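User: Hey, quick favor. My workstation is busy. Could you predict this chain's structure for me?
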Amino acid sequence: MGKGGVSIPDEEWERFLREAEAGTQGAPEEPSARARMVARRLREETGRPEGWRAHQPARRRRGKGWYAVGLLVAVGLLVVALDPGRVAGWFGGGGGESAPLASESERPDQPPATESADQLPTVKQPFKGSPAARWGDGTAGIGMPAARATGWMSKEQVGQALDRTRDFLAASSLDPGVLRGERPRKAIALINPHQQDVQDYLATAFRAPSRENDPLLLFSRFAKTKVRPLGNVVKTRGRITYREGERGAVEVTTDVTYVYPVVRAAAGGDEVARTIVRREVVMSWDNPAKVVVRPGMFSLVSYKVDTTNGGCDTFTGYLTPEFGSERAARGPGDGPEVDPYDRSTSMDARMREAGDAGCGTATRS
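Assistant: No problem, here it is.
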């Protein structure tokens, strides 16, 4: 479960079900196939590791059916401010600290400042030279709105749905086992089993990943034989918002950028690479009197992902970051330049900007 999140007993959601059914005419409907999955990939391509301005081609992908095209951007933040009297340690016992930014409550109006070109990441300071150095750890970096009565839910029920939404983000993109390549069972258990198109995708994605059935659309996973996450901290920046959706549902939108430091799986490796993933997941907490859904679960409306240094047009089911020697062998991508930390542009706007370009070029990592 997410840090600070509240686990909702099934009995409580059963109570919601009974309340929703009372006084409601007509039988619940099967959830419509509203989910659309979108993905865009970036692979690091630069021969300038000394400046840590990684060029990363991003292949824009189109799916079929309820698949659309996604995009990437990241949070607008300030340059990292390290205490000159300390060594900044980011993974417990590192001996340093940096003042974190306040939670993101709305989209920033500009990208974060550019860091000094000599700020290379290290095993002790894997976020050095990155705006993420001042982001929150795990779910602490995800801004949560105040709950209010919306649609079919009371204020208390909305608060519980928001907490469980955060639980899903933690289980899908922050869980240490999932990051090591394990199946995200806790996250999948929160998705409405009656949404057949999504269930078909989930059944296929881990068995035979492909462009259309890629687990990375919803989950962050690394192949443990190739790389391993460095430490226990993932930096995040983003926010959760909500509104009344179809049939009085509470429609929740999550827009979060995750920064994963990794090293090679081989023993003794100390070169640090960063993979940056931005996901926008829209989910519907449906009224069970109107939609067939199990208490405590949500239906997916849409999900989009964009990844920096995670693979470009590779569909192995795992994020595949590259390191310095691999980046040096590649040239710039053929798509537009993208700042993966710039969250001032919406995902949809970035998609329009990208057009039909192939692997774009990330200005930094």
